[in-house]
Amino acid sequence: MADITWEEPFCAEGANCFRIGTDPDGNAYIAVAGREDAPLTDTREALRNLILEIKAGKADHLL
């Protein structure tokens, strides 16, 4: 597993918490808190774009 630096968990109103992490190679990771051993991974740029789209409300239909 890569050397991932994880941010503090983000928890919504429910019990669903996730963490965002990065590694020295420029990869970004998203994992359910407590399941950091099985993250989704992509580039930091892709993660940044995902967060911007979520903030813009483009994923509200998924919630």
Question: Key terms for this structure?
Answer:
63 residues, alpha+beta, 5-stranded antiparallel β-sheet, 1 helix, 32% strand, flat, DUF397 domain-containing protein
Structure description:
With 63 residues, the protein is α+β, with helices and mostly antiparallel strands. It has one domain. The protein contains 1 helix and 5 strands, in the order βββββα. β2 and β3 form a beta hairpin. The model has no long low-confidence stretch (mean pLDDT 84). It comes from Streptomyces prasinus.
**Oligomeric description of these chains:** single chain
Percentage of β-strand residues: 25-35%
Count of the domains: 1
- Biggest β-sheet: count, sense, barrel? 5 strands, antiparallel
Look at the structure and give the mean pLDDT. 84
Helix-strand pattern: EEEEEH
Based on Cα principal axes, name the global outline: flat
Cα gyration radius (Å): 12 Å
What is the helix fraction of residues, given as a range?
10-25%
* Class by SSE composition: alpha+beta
Distance between the ends? 30 Å
Low-confidence stretches: none
Protein name: DUF397 domain-containing protein
SSE diagram, text form:
Elements: E1 5-6, E2 10-11, E3 17-22, E4 27-32, E5 40-43, H1 44-55
Antiparallel strand pairs: 1-3, 2-3, 3-4, 4-5
